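Milestone 3.1: sequence recovery, worked example.
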């Protein structure tokens, strides 16, 4: 039996779903201007969901993750056409918010 290689399957890799760059903690980007290129929300192994964002900070692609329900709720209202957008994430009343 002849086994095909992955390359022979002609499956295109999805570049829009890939989040690249070094991981950065959300506290390191608070009160700093960032550009959000994309995001995904996935189930957490600890329960609930978590948000992963592809951001740009100081002209470098970075990845940031958070369990902030507020950020997940807000960003999920954005359409594909809204990306990329610039924002500053702030902490108000013990929760994160886009400004």
């Amino acid at each position: 039996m002849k086994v095909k290689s992955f390359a022979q399957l002609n499956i295109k890799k999805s570049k829009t779903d890939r989040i690249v760059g070094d991981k950065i903690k959300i506290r390191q980007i608070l009160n700093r201007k960032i550009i959000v290129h994309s995001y995904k929300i996935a189930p957490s192994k600890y329960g609930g969901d978590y948000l992963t964002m592809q951001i740009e900070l100081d002209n470098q692609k970075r990845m940031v993750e958070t369990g902030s329900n507020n950020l997940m709720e807000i960003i999920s209202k954005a359409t594909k056409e809204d990306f990329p957008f610039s924002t500053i994430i702030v902490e108000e009343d013990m929760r994160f918010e886009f400004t």
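Strands lie at 22-23, 33-43, 49-57, 60-66, 85-92, 95-98. The chain has one domain: 16-98.
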